[in-house]
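Thread amino acids onto this structure.
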């Protein structure tokens, strides 16, 4: 079976012109297309089912409810990050790593019967689609998938179906597909993300800065506890510059310095908070 025969079997309205050659190449391990880097999120998520023939609207609506429920559950699996990878102590909970912008409904009618009762089948037999914006409540994680799906069906999918099939007698449907497309990745730390998560960045900066201030406070307590000794068990050592070494200096006040646990430099106490924020800033 060569490319011409495959073209006869798979070709038709809407099929690529080279579907025969491409299919033959894939069957024989020939693929010259460029290998692209894998994406962290899918380009689209779709759920579909095939039928022997749906003819009544109530049956169609039941199937739309089932498909929409499965779609939302799959979105929550593929597009929701349940783990907080940030070093902050507080867990922000699950968040969406991508937001689809387009909701799409596709249907396909069964082929008409031939004189002998058989039906002709084509890979691209009359599939039609209708798209619209994704409603914001599809991203609500506090409601069950079934409850969200019911709203999607009533507000969006039923209207799309009516526009695809304005006649009450829409014939026999052999396929229904519900999908979300046009993914927009949310801000995050991944290379493919559209930007950094500003909220997490400031939380991390505040956490590190707060730790630095707490360390300074603890170190001052250690100095009061050991006025004449060196608190060797302290996490950060405070060093007072020897006054005798600066007798010829014009400065009146000799600043205390703090050892930075990250870079090992001695930083004046008045600048230590800003220095901690410098380390907390993203590269």
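Threaded sequence (283 positions):
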């Amino acid at each position: 079976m060569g490319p011409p025969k495959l073209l006869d079997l798979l070709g038709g309205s809407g099929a690529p012109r080279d579907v025969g050659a491409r299919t033959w190449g894939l069957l024989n391990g020939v693929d010259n297309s460029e290998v692209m880097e894998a994406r962290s999120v899918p380009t689209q998520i779709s759920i579909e089912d095939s039928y022997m023939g749906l003819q009544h609207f109530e049956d169609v609506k039941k199937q739309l409810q089932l498909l929409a429920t499965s779609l939302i559950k799959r979105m929550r699996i593929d597009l929701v990050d349940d783990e907080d990878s940030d070093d902050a102590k507080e867990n922000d909970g699950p968040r969406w790593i991508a937001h689809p912008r387009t909701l799409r409904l596709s249907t396909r009618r069964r082929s008409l019967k031939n004189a002998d009762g058989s039906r002709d089948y084509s890979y691209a037999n009359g599939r039609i689609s209708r798209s619209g914006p994704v409603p914001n409540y599809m991203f609500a994680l506090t409601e069950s998938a079934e409850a969200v799906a019911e709203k999607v069906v009533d507000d969006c999918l039923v209207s799309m179906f009516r526009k695809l099939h304005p006649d009450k007698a829409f014939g026999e449907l052999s396929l229904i597909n519900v999908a979300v497309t046009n993914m927009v990745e949310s801000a995050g730390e991944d290379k493919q993300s559209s930007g950094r998560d500003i909220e997490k960045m400031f939380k991390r900066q505040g956490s590190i800065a707060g730790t630095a201030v707490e360390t300074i406070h603890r170190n001052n307590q250690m100095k009061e506890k050991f006025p004449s000794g060196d608190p060797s068990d302290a996490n950060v050592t405070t060093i007072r510059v020897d006054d005798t070494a600066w007798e010829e200096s014009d400065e009146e006040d000799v600043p205390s310095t703090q050892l930075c646990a990250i870079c090992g430099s001695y930083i004046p106490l008045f600048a230590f908070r800003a220095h901690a924020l410098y380390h907390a800033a993203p590269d």
